[in-house]
């Protein structure tokens, strides 16, 4: 977030909180010490910013809007957003005094910088009023809390699993998914041998800058990107455990993948659709991209299946990065109580049960509903029970935009640096970035 916008937000956060506390809206559960839910919406309009992803579950959005309007008398102005340049739009909007939405959606890795800036209303006093708040998915819940206060509500999530060509695996004599990392390597050896005449073949396409995948191996080995204690962040990639995980990942990227040492995963669906890739590591929706007539090969639709990435420990699977979205009420919103009420309805049991047909809902209590929809959902639901998230530092976005992890991994895969040297250099940069002030 731009510093000028941050300063503007911080300057108005206290005033916005005071205005909320002094509102006379009808309470439906506030304790007088913080924001109260409001049902007094006659003549008012609540502005909601949702990403276009939700057009895929328009029925969920519509029923929530209808119930909200019936309950409060307010109208809902739903404004669809795009992820591209979204934070730039948020920054400029929050820095002003008009056009502030009453509810916004953010990616879970984007929350920390906005919470630290005072951009959102404190929902701590309302948490118990939200359905299933005691079973919110940890990978989302952790990204909605800052300094012990609840500034957002988990919305939905997604995980990465192994996506593979059933026909290629079966032709290589592999009939069941691997249950350990060693079994995976053994299966990939068979695939590699079966396609030895194809110089472009990847038994497992693993681009050299695919940091989400690499960090999955780091977490499987018992480490993490960075830890926080007493407000100070300490990077952990140079630890023995992290280096072991990166060694395992490097084997996948160098021995079984072709042509992607200096790229990220953005093109993996298209590459797989061309017929030279047997396996990728991706989100469930990517199967649709691989088989889409416009973006891939429709003949592959019935040939794609998934399994959770097997762990180095036999019989277990690796923790997966839990990406997803959270929802929040801006600190400068004019209808905070109504915004919180819309948020409550949109994430209640009825809404999340309906959403479970399309994506991983915000509660572990609804995973069975999600998993029952398809075989792919069964696998991703399993993976969602063991996840990791990026450090909840306000400065994390600078680690990503600075390509610290991407450059480290590329140096490792291309042989420019040893794992020990590359992780030491990355740790130094991560430490200085996460602990930067001002």
TrEMBL record:
It comes from the Bacteria. Residues 1-21 form the signal peptide. The keyword Protease does not apply. Keywords: Signal, Transport. InterPro entries: SBP. SUPFAM superfamilies: Periplasmic binding protein-like II (SSF53850). Belongs to the bacterial solute-binding protein 1 family. This is Extracellular solute-binding protein. It comes from Jatrophihabitans cynanchi. The lineage of its organism: Bacteria, Bacillati, Actinomycetota, Actinomycetes, Jatrophihabitantales.
């Amino acid at each position: 977030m731009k510093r000028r916008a941050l300063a503007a937000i911080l300057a108005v956060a206290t005033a916005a909180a005071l205005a909320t506390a002094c509102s006379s809206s009808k309470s439906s559960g506030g304790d007088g010490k913080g924001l109260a839910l409001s049902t007094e919406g006659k003549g008012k309009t609540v502005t909601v910013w949702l990403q276009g992803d939700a057009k895929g579950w328009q029925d969920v959005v519509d029923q929530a809007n209808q119930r909200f309007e019936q309950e409060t008398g307010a109208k809902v102005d739903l404004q669809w957003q795009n992820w591209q340049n979204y934070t730039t739009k948020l920054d400029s909007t929050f820095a002003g005094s008009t056009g502030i939405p009453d509810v916004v959606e953010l990616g879970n890795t984007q929350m920390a910088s906005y919470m630290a800036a005072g951009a959102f209303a404190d929902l701590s006093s309302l948490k118990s009023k939200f359905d299933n708040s005691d079973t919110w998915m940890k990978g989302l819940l952790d990204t909605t809390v800052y300094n012990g206060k609840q500034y957002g509500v988990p919305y939905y999530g997604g995980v990465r699993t192994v996506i593979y060509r059933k026909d290629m695996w079966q032709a290589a004599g592999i009939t069941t998914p691997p249950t350990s990392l060693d079994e995976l390597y053994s299966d990939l050896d068979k695939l590699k041998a079966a396609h030895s005449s194809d110089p472009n073949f990847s038994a497992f396409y693993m681009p050299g800058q695919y940091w989400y995948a690499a960090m999955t191996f780091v977490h499987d080995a018992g480490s993490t990107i960075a830890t926080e204690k007493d407000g100070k962040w300490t990077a952990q990639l140079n630890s023995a455990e992290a280096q072991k995980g990166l060694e395992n990942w490097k084997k996948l990227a160098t021995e079984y993948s072709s042509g992607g040492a200096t790229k990220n995963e953005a093109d993996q669906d298209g590459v797989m659709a061309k017929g030279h890739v047997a396996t990728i590591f991706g989100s469930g929706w990517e199967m649709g991209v691989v088989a889409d007539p416009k973006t891939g090969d429709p003949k592959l639709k019935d040939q794609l299946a998934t399994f959770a990435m097997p762990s180095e420990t036999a019989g277990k699977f690796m923790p997966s990065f839990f990406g997803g979205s959270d929802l929040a009420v801006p600190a400068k919103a004019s209808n905070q109580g109504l915004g919180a009420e819309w948020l409550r309805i949109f994430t209640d049991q009825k809404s999340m049960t309906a959403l479970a047909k399309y994506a991983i809902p915000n509660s572990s209590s609804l995973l069975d509903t999600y998993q029952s929809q398809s075989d792919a959902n069964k696998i991703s639901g399993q993976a969602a029970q063991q996840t990791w998230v990026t450090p909840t530092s306000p400065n994390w976005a600078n680690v990503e935009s600075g390509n610290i992890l991407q450059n480290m991994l590329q140096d490792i895969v291309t042989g420019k640096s040893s794992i020990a040297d590359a992780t030491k250099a990355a740790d130094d940069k991560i430490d200085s970035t996460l602990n930067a002030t001002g």
